[in-house]
Amino acid sequence: MRILFFREEIVKTGQIKSIVLLLVLLIVSVVPNAEAAIKPNALTITPSIAGHVFEGNEGLENSAEYGLGFGYNFNKHWAAELTSTYSEVDVENTVNDEVQVYGLRLDALYHFLPDEEIVPYFVVGGGGLAYDVDNLSSRSGDHDLFTNYGFGLKFFFDDRTALRLDARHFTRFVDDNESGDDQSNVYQNLVVSAGLNFQIGGGEPASERMFDYDDDGIVDSRDRCPDTPPGYAVDGHGCSLDSDRDGVIDALDDCPNTSYGVEVDNEGCPVVIDSDGDGVADESDDCPDTPAGFEVDERGCSSEQANLLLRAADDFEEIKIAGTDAAAEIEALAEVETLDLGIEFAPNSTSIRSQYRADLEQAAAFAAAHPGVKLMVEGHTDSLGSGSLNQSLSQKRADTVRWTLVSEYGVNRNRIVAEGLGESQPIADNGTKEGRARNRRVLIRVVEP
């Protein structure tokens, strides 16, 4: 009886080997398809048949196994597959006992050469088995867990269909109630399967010429700017748009409609040049030399400037001096060639404080006392600071006094000029605080009699 059992096992094992050999010969005889490849995002369906070889001490005879798998290709290399199986397994040393085995497993697949006609892959996963035993109540309702790994091939007939062959090693973990105390509860099985793999949907295989690394809609083979950040609008060459052609792309341009040729900053906005600091850019300033402190309109001009321009057009001069003794003061100044104004400036300042209003009116009276002749306003500083800085500061102070006489007191601008002399002509000791205050001064004098 034992010899007959071994003969039957050898026959069944030989049948499984014959099936595997037939499948290998079938694969070799198929002509490859040049357009075959794993399709990303495709669904797959794989009906299969397998030979299941059990470990010798399990008490189960080798058998055929039928499966149906459903999978998804995440990309060209990685896929997942859920497979259900069914087999009818005879129990050794019995006549009528047959075990119906239902299996369910979840596997991960990695394809090594996804663009080739023959695609090798590695598979690993796990699942469970459920047994339904006829006429053997002691095994009814058993459930096992298992892990598996293996290698396989997908041999494509066309771009949608492939013959699939794989071999796997299964490790099955058996419930102790089934194996008993005197038997191992871990079994090693071999499963060799073949099936047809169908791909449904998914993207077409992409060649190198169709890659778009920065995903801007321009393939890399035609993209002059292949590293464009996500979300940036691009032109036909794949480069970020610069609608106003100012050198700052639209995605970073805070002023996308800047006129062509205008100098811009890093945000794409025009660089504002305001020479007189009145808040109106030079390009729009009709009065670009307005002295500091004057309120201006949208043209960059003050109301005093507007009146001055009207008066200067016909060379008309009307000096305005307040007070009842103005005439006497003008008469007294007629014999004076140089008037040292009592205006003192704060360090590094060009502003005239309100306390020196009387000095300005005296300067206006001096101008009235010398009608029709050229006048000069001289600015002076102390010796603190560099010579070049003091020269510039003295010029600004002289300009401020000149402009005040023109704009507020009506002196004709065409006959009064301003000159800064810096620290070159001190009238007091620059080594003392009081001396430096006296040296920060302005005077007005006659240039031409």
What would you say this structure looks like, in words?
The radius of gyration is 51 Å and the shape is rod-shaped. A hairpin with a 6-residue loop joins strand 4 (98-111) and strand 5 (118-134). It is of the alpha+beta class and 449 residues long. The strands form 2 sheets. It has an 8-stranded antiparallel β-barrel with strand order 1-2-3-4-5-6-7-8. The protein has a 4-stranded mixed β-sheet with strand order 9-12-10-11. The chain has 3 domains: 2-200, Porin, CATH 2.40.160; 272-301, no CATH class; 307-446, OmpA-like domain (60s Ribosomal Protein L30, Chain: A), CATH 3.30.1330.60. The longest helix has 28 residues, at 2-29. It has helices spanning 2-29, 176-179, 303-313, 326-333, 357-369, 387-409, 433-439; strands at residues 43-53, 63-73, 78-90, 98-111, 118-134, 143-156, 161-173, 186-200, 338-340, 375-379, 416-420, 442-446. The N and C termini lie far apart (150 Å).
Task: Record keyword descriptors for this entry.
3 domains, alpha+beta, Porin, 449 residues, 60s Ribosomal Protein L30, Chain: A, eight-stranded antiparallel beta barrel, 12 strands, single chain, four-stranded mixed beta sheet, disordered N terminus, 7 helices
**How many domains make up the 3D coordinates?**
3
Q: Total number of β-strand segments?
A: 12
Helical element count?
Answer: 7
Record the strand order, biggest sheet: 1-2-3-4-5-6-7-8
Cα-to-Cα separation, first versus last residue: 150 Å
Q: Structural class, from secondary structure content? A: alpha+beta
